[in-house]
Amino acid sequence: SGELYCSLPNPRNVHFESINMKNILHWSAPEGTGDGVLYKVKYAVYGVGKWIRKPECRNINRTWCDLSSETSDYEEQYYASVKAFLNGTCSDWMETTRFNPLTDTKIDPPMVSVSSTDRSISIILTAPEKWKRSPEEESMSLLQVYPGLQYNVSVFNKKTKKRWSFSISNNTLVVPWLEPGTAYCVSAQIHVTTPLLDSGFSKEHCITILKDK
Amino acid sequence: GACSVSMSMTEIRAGFTAIKANIQSRDPIRTLSILSHPCSLHKVKSSDRCCITHQLFTFYVDKVFKHCRTEDSFVNRKISSIANSFLSVRRKLEQCREKNKCVCGEESTEKFKQILANYEGLNVTSAAMKSLGELDILLDWMEKS
């Protein structure tokens, strides 16, 4: 295809970084090259016979490229590849390993909302949404993507320093028989059994149970 | 009634995840797939799920695992652990078939023919290694509903 003789060192560590299926291709500059290196990117659906160029990532000098749109069908798997150019010479195409959005994404912690009534705490959990192209696009909760999604909830008594842990499948939890005048802190994590995926824990939400009148 | 088979997907998934990068790196062919193209498992009707699952477990037991020996003993141990899990599930699916609970429709027969054609389009070792590298495609489909 009229390509130049490629003697430039290759881009390194070409890989996908994915959070809630927002899939960004990352790489490191070729060893020993300073400024001025430009890159182009292509991707392929595994099992389909052609590589597709990504126009928005042609002749770019940054070392990442957002391929979320191109890899949004999580029933498919993908490869991506990067080539470097500098002063009229180029590198080889350097590929990722096979990328499976369903198993290779990371999941954000759930949103946690906490309220208290009488001597109990009500906790409502919301799983993050799958990445979408635009705000107008219909939202899809990761709960729909991972039917076996569960929540691990931690409730911490700030007076006694005692911690309870719960594992629930639905998104609400009521913790009864709590001590008046005591502060409780709640945080939660998403757990998917298979494929095995765990989010981090959300930041703590603390609430104090009102004293009896 | 429906055929219901208990199996430890978590165990199979963990075993495959441990060797996925190793196995997939042995498959240089990006442009061909055994399970997902030209037709995708995700398009299988629910009435055909049991039959396709049985056919695919038989396919992996009879045609894939035995051709996937590597020079890496860790990888070989994981492969045989997955193979044993598949053997026990296949046996349970067989019992369902004997009780007529796992009927094969025309679509599943056609789809499985396509999978076999994809497999036979490559030499045995390449086809077996590619099939093993696509185990997550099978697991993803099975876990979907």
Number of strands of chain B: 0
CATH superfamily of the largest domain in chain A: Immunoglobulins
At the first level of CATH, the class of the largest domain in chain A is Mainly Beta
Largest sheet of chain B: none
How many distinct helices of chain B? 6
Alpha-beta content class of chain B = mainly alpha
**How many domains of chain A?**
2
GO molecular function, one term (chain B): cytokine activity
Family (chain B): Belongs to the IL-10 family.
Keywords (chain B): Cytokine, Disulfide bond, Secreted, Signal
Function (chain B): Immune regulatory cytokine.
Task: Give the helix/strand layout.
The complex is a heterodimer of chains A (213) and B (145).
Chain A: E1 12-19, E2 22-28, E3 38-45, E4 52-60, E5 64-66, E6 78-86, E7 89-90, E8 94-95, H1 101-104, E9 111-117, E10 120-126, H2 142-145, E11 150-157, E12 162-168, E13 172-175, E14 183-192, E15 197-198, E16 205-208
Antiparallel strand pairs in A: 1-2, 2-5, 3-4, 3-6, 6-7, 6-8, 9-10, 10-13, 11-12, 11-14, 14-15, 14-16
Chain B: H1 9-25, H2 49-64, H3 73-98, H4 106-120, H5 124-133, H6 135-143
